Amino acid sequence: MLEQLYTIDWAKLKHAYGSAAGVPGDIWGLISPDAKEREQALYNLYGNIFHQGTRYEATPYAIPFLLELIESEFTENKHEIISLLVNLALGYEEEYLPEGINPEQFRKELMEMDANMTDEQRINAEKYGYSPTALIYCYDFVKKGIPVLLKCLKNEDENVRKAAVYAISWFPEEAEITVPPILEALSKIEGEIEIANAVLGVGLLSKQSSKSVDLSSVYPYLKSDLELVRICSAIAFAKNPMEEKVLEILIEGIKSDANLNYVEGMLFNEGRISGYAGTTLSKYGKSEKEKIIPVLCQVLESVNAYQSLDITASILSILNEKRTKPIKEEKAEDLDSLEIMALNAICEHGGWTIGTSGFVNYFQLLRSAGIPDSKEKLKKFLNNEPE
User: Fold this and answer.
1) 50 pairs with which residues across the strands?
2) Which among 165, 190, 235, 385 is placed 20 to 30 Å from 100, CA to CA?
3) Which domain-ending residue is among 110, 144, 178?
4) Inter-CA distances, 197 with 162, 252, 268, Å
5) CA 262/CA 307 separation, integer angstroms
């Protein structure tokens, strides 16, 4: 195992902290008999070849060896390595929800970014071991490992099976060969979370696949007695135009925030299923905003600051769909009743603080959406007072 690991001149490759000479040791550390050493090795790799979402010159070289570890019978923490691979392929994968990744657009944007780099940017990229083309290599190298991931669908460990479905779901160009085995596995699953995970997986694959994906065997899950399965099925089937039944279940999902704001063991959207339902509504349910906005505002009253990010982002996405001018440049008296309702809910119940400190991510969200970015400014705006 890992016979080819040292045939690569890692010292000449770069990652977040310079030379990648230590990467082989981290890869070996993933199969250490000592659990703490395995944990440290994984932590190191998240910090050096995947640093705050960035991938580096050395990153694609590590991927085949990580796949080799997943395939080995001696590897204990396969689900954690699979999750790392998803990050290496995509960065922060939640950014691509609820539609999933469009591979053609993904490649095009990165190639254009590479072609348009200035001389100074190229010098910095060379210095720090970063380039847009490296991101394409990362995606493609993980995609080559799909046969390995498909084998994991039959693993005895539920965590490995779930991670494999999750990873496979980000490669819609392979849907023709990956959906049938996921559906076969789904037909044999009994656990609620694993069923929901598989349903989300095939739903995500169907949204970006260039070929039609038959989800008829999944449709009955919309009537499941299990709330989590029902909500995840609605997320999977959401599209334009949205079926009334799917819309009703998604609204149910964001109302059920106490149960679904974080589901331990769910991988999609880091387990924030109510937030995932809200994001899905904001993407596919804009034509039903009279039904959706009041529900989102109601949910905003009972969530914490972190959960408020998802809900507020969904509200603002719907409000800004057809806007050509930022809301903050309007007068409150010129806004419609739904807009006023939403802004009042954000002002009174938004995630402005964490503990005694301001929540910077929340301010940034409002600023980027063209909303007054402090509670005081928003109050003045709503009251038609000058700042």
Assistant:
1) 55
2) 190
3) 144
4) 7, 19, 8
5) 9
Q: According to the model, what pLDDT value does residue 291 have?
A: 87
The H helix count followed by the E strand count for the chain is 20, 6
Would 267 be classed as within a structural domain? no
Token pair for 333: 């008296």
Domain boundary among 89, 117, 144: 144
Confidence class of residue 257 from pLDDT cuts 50, 70 and 90?
low
Q: Which long-range contacts (CB under 8 A, 24 or more apart) does 140-143 make?
A: 141/60, 141/63, 141/64, 141/89, 142/63, 142/67, 142/85, 142/86, 142/88, 142/89, 142/167, 142/171, 143/89, 143/171, 143/173, 143/174
In the chain, at which residue ranges do the beta strands (DSSP E only) sit? Answer: 14-15, 18-19, 50-51, 54-55, 353-354, 357-358
Q: Confidence band (pLDDT; 50, 70, 90) for 385? A: confident
Q: Is this prediction's pTM over 0.85?
A: yes
Answer whether residue 343 is part of any domain: yes
Cβ neighbours, 10 Å, residue 120: 8
Rounded Cα distance, 200 and 46, in Å: 25
